[in-house]
## 1
Amino acid sequence: MSHRSLPRREPYRPQIHYTPARNWMNDPNGLVWHDGEYHLFYQYNPEGDQWGNMSWGHAVSPDLVHWEELGTAIPATEDEHVFSGSVVIDEHGTAGFGRSAAVAVYTASCQRTGVQTQALASSADRGRTWTRYRGNPVLDIGSKDFRDPKVFWYAEGGYWIMAIARCSERRIALYRSADLKAWTWLSDFGPAGATLGEWEMPDLFRLPLEGGGSRWVMLVSVNPGGPAGGSGVQYFVGDFDGVTFTPEDASGSWADVGRDFYAAATWEGTPEGRRCLIGWMANWGDAAAIPTHPWRGAMTLSRELSLVTAGGRTWLAQRPVAAVRDLRAGEPFTFGDLEVRGDVPLLGHLDEGALEVTAEFEPGTAERAGLVLGDGAIVIGYDARTGELFAERGPGPVTAGRHGGTAVLRDGRIRFTAYVDACSVEVFSDDGRTVITDLFFPERRALGLSAVGGTASLVSLVVQPLRPARRDVRSPGPHGA
């Protein structure tokens, strides 16, 4: 495969996923499109590769795939950690910072008391420099458990909406404001769905519905209590009338059934009204221990969202943004019409770049069948007994185990596409309704097939090399330098 290998000193550095050059990263923040750029802010420690000194890092992209790291945007101070939040483009100058100013609404966590309040910062230079509002905080309920504001303009009412987590209460509070400074409580949503862990990182947005009309979607991150243990993201589909969010089904659904998908958020203001999402590709259960250096933390691929109906319910569907296809490079390896029993090696040594792997199986008499990556570091397959697409990790630096979700056979076949990078895999099946995101750290790059308890048929397998999306990794200087 003819594309650039990973640096030998950084064997797990992703090639098509965003990572900072150095140090710790977690939640995506401030996702907004403005003046021809997609902005990705994120929780960042400028001083080291463990959680601490929480600040906002910043990267920009023309297409949600190729990212340029700009450095630290809003730094921590002696008084406050800069926790998660959002950015809006104040087109009408409602906050008094000027027309089309970028305004960050973030949680200021007091380093002395732990009290979490909501604060503003503004930028007039495309997010390169930021000025904290002298009147901060703009929302203070005296809580140590009140964070991650997602703010958007509600056009029907002509005001701003904030969705914010009351974490240990498993509630999402909704507020309104005319100027981003004075906020009035509207309603609470929750508890609902998964409630074993704290609720964080809410997002609320409208999506068109397949077949006509639209619905509102509420994202809520939950930790612990995710579908594979530890961290996870659930969603609810329903209606929002400017005051109250009402779900169609209060049981909710998981956006991703893998173990390494958390704090997902969506971009505001995207061209053509597309709704695109990105998540932190990690799990709080082992995020601090993954064997990477000098960076720790990566984002998922950017995903475009839609709503589909099936089985009398409305489902969120996710697909990698179209620009990912532009990374295809060179001729693919293709296989097909193979009977699979036991373990069947295919490619004993893979180059260290990223791959797009598209597979189609007929389960046949096998109890389960699928792909084996990294000499068994992870298996991606279909379990005919449970009707689930699954990922199963072996022992290693991240928690071993199996997890998955229901996937539909079509014409007696299971189909999925997996994006395999240096230390991760993202699997999409059932038209994007079933998604699995996992980290894994193979000692050797290899690809094979496996069938257990019978014989399965591999209908087709296409292994497509992908060129790197990131620029050569360097340590950025101060923000804007």
## 2
Amino acid sequence: MSQPSSATGLTVEIQDTIAILRLDRPAKRNALNDALVLALRDAFERMPATVKAAVVHGAGDHFCAGLDLSELSERDAVQGLHHSRMWHKALDALQFGPVPVIAALHGAVVGGGLELASAAHIRVADATTFYALPEGTRGIFVGGGASVRVPRLVGVARMTDMMLTGRVYDAEQGERAGFAQYLVPAGESLAKAIALAQKVAGNAPMTNYALTQVLPRIADQTADHGLLTESLVAAIAQSAPEAKARVAAFLQGKAAKVQKG
């Protein structure tokens, strides 16, 4: 099942239990405009119940080169506030949506593109990937969630450096810093992301829900509140029939053992 690319610049394809969302503005290096941001929001808010994991990637040579500055309109402070909050809602629909999301990165992951990638739960970069936040050198500030999500990946000091100096991280530097969890050869990030999504889709639904919805919120809580939340979610997860069946299969030697590598 595939929805063809439209004026929104987003193509959605369903492969069994995996949704593959492609940013489809290669001539613009997949730069984000309002139509594309809203299309991403709508895609996750309307995700079919049969989908258990999603992959986001970009057409052409780049994942996403950021905000489409050619469509940047003059806004007063109030309009700018509401525009930023629209982005927040759209990327929250991805991060806190119905399924885990894997971002397949290549080429530019810049500005708003890094904001989009940081909203995913897993990031796979290929050797062509590079990361930047050029807003600082353009006299503006991030507005799509980078100030919250990027420091959680790489720390406040690295983000500050990137915005103050225009520093660019290449693929290897980015993986070491924490922008991506996986680094693969050029051209292989999408295949790796789909393979990971298929694996994730096979998890117990409550486990995936806990990891995408609860774990990020535990990280925002005080230690004692976080530990209580953990206990409550652990109790709920282990009481699910599917969890009981999986544990029983492991105890009976029917489940695969953890293997190195």
## 3
Amino acid sequence: MSSITKEQKLQGIIEMESKLNEIQDLDILLERILTEARKIVHADAGSIYVVEGTNLRIKYAQNDTQLKSLPEGSKIPYVSFSFPISKKSIAGYCVLSGEVVNITDAYNLSEDKPFSFNKTNDEETGYRTTSMFCIPLKIASGKILGVLQIINAQNEAGNVIPFDSDAELYIKHFAVSAVQALEHACIIGNMIKSLQLMAQFRDPKETFKHVERVSSFSIEIYDRWAMNRNVPFFEQQKFRDNLKIAAKCHDFGKVAVQDSILKKVKPRLTSEERDVMKGHTCAGALVFTDAESSLEQMCRDVALRHHEWWNGQDCGYPGDFDYTKYVPGMALPHAKPLAGEEIPLAARIVSIADVFDALSHKRAYKGAWSLEDSFMEIEKLSGTQFDPELVKAFIQIKDRIVAINSSFEADEKSEEND
């Protein structure tokens, strides 16, 4: 490879690094880091892991070969699981040693290596992992946030080749800036988590897991809707980054509702109490009144509009009411309902994710519906409460929604057993 080509390659990496710093959500950033790292060295597949205490969790997996065998618009099956950090696994060794691992053939490791390659996923999918490159994502303090693992580098003919010295140079250079972007995203993420925790203190029913599920479901709905509509890539990336965070803020306004109403189980809320509860939409929007960035504007829109109804029925709220005149604790006055695309897209998406999650999980006032019944209810409300195009996208990704829900349930059971 000529020095000019190397210079051009490094310049392209520098340009991508500046775009990474614009991403605010940690999960969106992790996914993008994996995507761009693979592009840099023409890798067919890869995974990205994050450190969670003494465990490593796989956050994202990508595989172009598997993707080509799926229907257009589909993603490879959702995976999310954790395992103890140990030198016996390649990713675990990467964390504990802090070293880069470059493997020519995962199936033929030398016996002096402390780690081994787990062939289980290959056997289940029919894939063949050959070359592999793992690099720890280490911040300035020395703390390792996770591991970037890319698989099966390819030449121009599409044949699998080892990761050579140039590939190693490019990925190491890219990883330095990727970690800087991760540190920035972690700061934003921690701020949002603090606000989520505050909301959970006020309303135990709105758990951290509920908020995280709603956020994850919302991204999947948007991705499929955007694919159906051929939304340009850059526009998708910006919107989904904001949406991942904004969805987590949808019920922040409940901190302004008094306990006697917020935590009431029996008897049911009176009509006036329900109007006070509805005010949480305006209270949440007030948090973002002075919105300047597109993220803050979307947070405001989602908090304010996620209970509007697509067909403009009076069931939706707060409607055409000036939320800046709302006083926390007051009953929400009746106003002309919004309808259709008057309701911001992000709010229409979060509305579906929020209702689906509320239906399919236990609340103090109701038992959990089955997932199938919950899907059927969302379909039933298409065109009335929900945007029909978004419902269509939601049903198209049904298997993925189920997989995400199952991964959260598995985590909860694991936490109960610890």
## 4
Amino acid sequence: MTLSDAVYLAAGIAALGAAVVPRLVLHRPLSMPMVFLAAGMLLGFLPVPAVDPVDARLWVEHTTELCVIVSLMGAGLALNRPVGLRRWAGPWRLLGISMPLTIAAMGAAAAMLLEWPLAAALLLAAVLSPTDPVLAAEVRVGEPTDDPDDEDEVRLSLTAEAGLNDGLAFPFVLGALAFAAAPAGTASWTAEWLLVDVLARTAIGVVIGILTGRLLRWMFFHARPRALRLSEHMEGFVALGATFVAYGAAELLHGYGFLAVFVTACTIRAAERSHGYHKVLHEFTEQIERLLTALLLFLLGVYLVAHGLPSLTWQGALLGLLLILVIRPAAGYAGLLGSDTEPRERLMIAVFGIRGIGSLYYLAYVLGHSDDFDAQAEELWAIVAFTVLLSVVFHGAAATPAIRRLDRPRE
């Protein structure tokens, strides 16, 4: 059996399972990602080829990239509450306070435990900093509705945070690259990094997202030629067109495509909120996202058994545990102190900082753009994959009971 044969088999199993598994695990302390990751790990004990991300880096980079941008479009289209400084106070705090705290704490822990160069420790922290819109189905907002106040603070904060920090983690990843490439002991790279990678590329991503979203929402809902007014035709695959246009335009102009896709989705969602076309677009992106997620987690499970876990050191495993159980909950809770969220909601938002497909993409991207981390590549993949495994198991098992407990007083 060749690797391509194994991928085709995995894709077929994933497609069938993605249609069946969500219904089987409904209202149980399980999640679809848990099932597919476990199935992949079981298959890893058989003599089948495994996708090693060190050797198949380019394939991993573009497959995870596709999965993330599709999930970002779905997350943005699902949000009912309009964007605003006060309305989105929770997500802004998580992005502006919790994410930098997480990177700083994780970088320090990695430098001490792994005894790596500071650039490699910073890279690991940056790669693991974004929460994931892909694996957060149980704790994110549901399908679009016509009620702008339909979402509770937990679901809104986790969905908006995951949608935005997949793009806003990029400056920190690029900062690790610049730090590694700079002469030892110099800080000359910081000015260009701040002006270009932090400010300019972020601004380009936001502007492209707003312009693309406004153009598309005019075409969807207000264009005079009926052939252009796509909301009347109710075709869901148009969501892929919107995703690719926003992402491609932002990347061609050297902006952050992840950020552009999410901003585009939120801008489209702001138009004709009661229109059923939003639901059609969201459902299509959700189906594609579910299929890609099932495939990637299935392959990740095979890799973990064949290569990942054998390459994992106890220091790397401890880092993953620290991030999921200590660093993110502490940083998330600290970022929300002083906000209007109730203590119970604050704790749940802090704990459910899910790690997933975005971290796999960032690591594949970095290792393809720099040779400075080749010495740590195998262990980097092992630590990141193990952290995703921890997050899938811990958050997947806890999500359903936690959401039930959260919703019970409202009901």
